[in-house]
Specification:
There is one protein chain. 21% of the residues lie in helices and 42% in strands. The model has no long low-confidence stretch (mean pLDDT 90). Strand 6 and strand 7 (87-92) form a beta hairpin. The protein is flat and about 55 Å long. The chain has 103 residues and is of the alpha+beta class. It has two helices and seven strands. The strands form two sheets. It has a five-stranded antiparallel beta sheet with strand order 2-3-1-4-5, covered by helices on one side. Strands 6-7 form a two-stranded antiparallel ribbon.
């Protein structure tokens, strides 16, 4: 059964953006929406993770859980999905802060 997916792909190669637009609509730059089967969704995500390099990508799709959706991420991110008793929450990775040394 086909379902709606959303992919956000930032700083990815142009050939990946072109491949995504074969299956999905690019509604704004770097944001793709469409209705595809689970098999096509998984194949698209495999392509995204293989080509993301230094870019970042997030996939959101419906599933049978409390929130009604699941997230997948690829690439270096500041935000990481974390399972918290069956709910997906977002953890922010903070860069280490060096203490200022008084002069």
């Amino acid at each position: 059964m086909a379902s709606m997916i959303v992919i956000s792909a930032t700083a990815v190669p142009d050939h990946l953006r072109g491949a995504l637009t074969r299956w999905l609509l690019e509604v704004t730059p770097e944001l793709y929406v469409g209705t595809v089967s689970a098999r096509v969704r998984d194949e698209l995500w495999q392509s995204v993770t293989a080509c993301a390099n230094q870019g970042t990508a997030v996939l959101a799709y419906p599933t049978d859980n409390e929130q009604g959706f699941e997230l997948r991420t690829a690439g270096p991110q500041r935000r990481t999905p974390v399972d918290f008793d069956g709910l997906t929450l977002i953890a922010f990775d903070r860069p280490s802060q060096e203490m200022a040394m008084p002069l």
